[in-house]
Amino acid sequence: MSLRSRCSRICSNAIHRPSIYFNASQTPSKVNPVWQTCRSVASTPSAEKALFPGALNSEFTNTLEFLRPSNKKSIPTYRVVDQYGGVINKEMGVETEDEEALVLYRNMVCLSIMDLLMFEAQRQGRLSFYMVSAGEEGIAVGSASVLNPADVVFCQYRETGVYMQRGFTLDEFMNQLFSNSQDAGRGRNMPVHYGSKKLNIHTVSSTLATQIPHAAGAAYAIKLQNMQNPEIEPRIVVCYFGEGAASEGDFHAALNIAATRQVPAVFICRNNGYAISTPTSDQYRGDGIASRGAGYGIPTLRVDGNDIFAVRRATREARKLALENGGQPVLMEMMAYRVGHHSTSDDSFAYRQKIEVEDWKRRDNPITRLRKWLEGRQLWDEDKERELRSRTRKEILAAFDRAEKLKKPAIRHAFGDVWEDLTEEQRMHVEELRDILRRYPKEYDVDQHEGGVESLDELLAAKSTK
């Protein structure tokens, strides 16, 4: 038997065997993929394809020709409706019920109004920081609308629509923005860094791109859980990030380990054209972020982020794909344009022309496109628009007013959630802080905090749980 035919038989057997066997009484065992099975078999003189471990099945050639990406066609961008709200493939439609589309539209409008109001509130000095989602509402709301509630989500900082679509309330948004006593994060994080254990969304981290490797690791854990609990509906991890974050090393490390471990994860890149003040032309020379997916052996798709129906269909199919054969990562690049400033700390007109922004606002955005589709089906009109915006504005301002009046979290929370019980060192710190606050009451206004300085007394008096 020749080496080549022997390798062919080995590889054939490997392909038809399931990649992972599982027995509840045993540790899951992994079957090596094809390229690992054949790694020790060398090419024969008559072989037409390479059998190198790092490039299996690469055809031999005697033509010296460099692969030039600039000579290749760009990856296409998937869409379902055009910018006028017209359905491109009428036989397939939009796969969205009318009532569901109305809910999506109301959520996107609510998000845009909240962004405008909170941006102005920051300018008035009532909030310390805020980030808007203008131009990217369809990506967040659309993708979140087709996920399973049990799916675990990792966000960056422009996914407010994901939280809103999954059930995060206006009061919860406002409590976090004000870091008041009802903030689930106990005032420990800066505004717009939401999190919700109830909604299976990890808390946003300020450090750019750290959520991407976290998502890869969580997806590997979920893969094992899916295997060990076959009676429970399998779930996936979804990770959001911007194209600027894809320039970080964390992105590459995460996609590589997600691909080699074959984890059930969907990575969604919001390519909005700018990483703060850096345009994409200064970030990379390749064909966007989608072109990197093939390099890691990951199924990849580029989507029109202004088309919420395309976002929904793509995310739904990506979720199915991520669960195939025990799990595999999927990369989606959602194309959009960041209409607003990067944050309230940024003036984008210092690095781009205002006419460029106004052109995008007028020409195409996810809210306008969905509204055109709704109007085309006689589901929406100017009166309904006016009533929705008026009512939504009142609801947001009411939640804003409630949150602004609440006190700050109790000072004791500065020491909690570290150890189950206070350590001796922590106790010394609490006593020292209490002493300073009582000796210098004019310098430290603790009345704005729930319980005042007495909350430290309660902490010191609390009995050990041991």
Automatic annotation (TrEMBL):
UniProt record, GO biological process: branched-chain amino acid catabolic process
Subcellular localization: Mitochondrion matrix
Physiological role: The branched-chain alpha-keto dehydrogenase complex catalyzes the overall conversion of alpha-keto acids to acyl-CoA and CO(2). It contains multiple copies of three enzymatic components: branched-chain alpha-keto acid decarboxylase (E1), lipoamide acyltransferase (E2) and lipoamide dehydrogenase (E3).
Enzyme Commission number(s) of this protein: 1.2.4.4
Reaction(s) this enzyme catalyzes, per UniProt: N(6)-[(R)-lipoyl]-L-lysyl-[protein] + 3-methyl-2-oxobutanoate + H(+) = N(6)-[(R)-S(8)-2-methylpropanoyldihydrolipoyl]-L-lysyl-[protein] + CO2
Gene3D superfamilies: 3.40.50.970
Residue stretches making up the Dehydrogenase E1 component domain: 105-411
GO cellular component: mitochondrial matrix
Protein name: 2-oxoisovalerate dehydrogenase subunit alpha
PANTHER family linked to this entry: 2-OXOISOVALERATE DEHYDROGENASE SUBUNIT ALPHA, MITOCHONDRIAL (PTHR43380)
Any single Pfam family the record assigns to this protein: E1_dh
EC category: oxidoreductase
Organism: Periconia macrospinosa
GO molecular function, one term: metal ion binding
Family label: Belongs to the BCKDHA family.
